[in-house]
Amino acid sequence: MIFYKTDEQVELMRISALLVSETLSEIAKILRPGLATIEIDKLANEFILDNGAVPSFFNYNGFPHHIITSVNDVVVHGFPGKEILKDGDIISVDVGVIKNEYHGDHAYTFVIGDASKEILDLVKTTKESLFVGINEAVVGKRLGDIGAAIQAYNEKKGYGVVRDFVGHGLGKSMHEDPQVPNYGKRGSGLLLKENLVMAIEPMINLGKKEVYIERDGWTVRTADGKPSVHFEHDVCIKKGKALILSDYTPIEMAEKNNPNLKYTEN
Length: 266
Prior knowledge:
Strand content: 15-25%
Radius of gyration: 17 Å
Number of strands: 15
Order of helices and strands: HHEEEEEHHEEEEEEEEEEH
Number of helices: 5
């Protein structure tokens, strides 16, 4: 079932989405080589609780951590732990919160130190493709238009567009209908109507599109061991131009101000 939001509910969702953005900006301030990913989880949990919300991911279907940290060839659902970040690593940090009964949920991929041009191009292209998809998220378009735009933008660079995991509707539940694939056929799928809120989240691999799930039942890795990049925004369908509820501005500011991170423009 698809739940269309009232304008008042959309504004409550914006509050949740912006708290996620603020959490990611706090994380961006501390990222560096030598940092254990469990320290990111600890910071995020404390910041979310201090701001009157709770982490969406903790105990969600048994997920044992407060946020998701996916390093290098981990596509999504990586566990924070003893893993130490190294120069040249990339890390996708995915954060969810519940505030005022509504979820915010988005992600950002950071480059630690000096990475190869090949990696930087993958990060840049994936981030750009998110906004290419968002441009299609308007009243009168179809769901397939979003996925088709993201797919074409990445495949022209030879990247693998993950099929096994997709974006989703968002509201009082973290995962609502519809599913939002990052691939598809223009003119196909659900007709987009005003005040449908969804998380659009391209997951793009440097190599092939195939992935596998580790024995922990969560961690998703690329089948060929090559890096993967993940960006995500919370978006509300509107006439003419989509309303982005989350905000990369504070994250990018923190990223630019952290000498241990490489900022990638889009």
